Amino acid sequence: MQIPRSTHRTAAAPRSEAPADAALVASRLEDLHVEARTELDHGDALELLVATVLSAQTTDVRVNQVTPELFSRWPDPAALAGAEEAAVAEVVRPLGMGPTRARRIIALAQELLARHGGRVPDDQAGGAAVPGGGRKTAQVVRGAWFGHSLLAVDTHVGRLSRRLGWTTQNDPRKVEEDVVARMEADGTGADAEELTVLGLRLILHGRRVCTARAPRCGQCVLSDLCPRVGVS
Ligand code: SF4
Hints:
mainly alpha, Endonuclease Iii, domain 2, Endonuclease III, domain 1, 2 domains, elongated, binds iron/sulfur cluster
């Protein structure tokens, strides 16, 4: 990844005592990660849902390597629902747990046909209930495809929210509540698409800079704002 020149710092700025200002964080991440979008390649809601389910315990890059063939051979819920498990497993095998992943996405397609008229549901309960899905999966699809203002709290968003001092919680629902409260307190638009976009940028920042084991505070554009909670 090419890091913009402004982030080429040699030492982290002094550690802030207070939670990072959410409006400033959002603004700086917007400058750094201009294109806020999920890194899972997709062309419609079904592809995003399937790719999100497949991304469990692997990386988006790997998922993107198998989905072109997957989506080309089984392009809609009916095709995927009737697919032969072994054939799907062979395509997703590079991700590991090929048979399990194949069963999951075939069951997902069957569920869409049986309960949702072959469409990806645009509601939290329906999206969370599909096989292989869950709260985060539903939020990713509803936020990134259907345009809802949602914070999909994955491992990166949770970790950054804690390090930035916005929450002490681990439960994704509580993390989301705390981040929304922080955004409102700091005068940024938690009620618009800002929340979804901020979440996507936090994920990018967590992958590229504020990694779990070795956060690069010395090169971080949030260095002067961030209390770095839990970072030694
Ligand atoms: S890398 Fe993470 S912990 Fe370090 S300053 Fe940036 S956001 Fe804070």
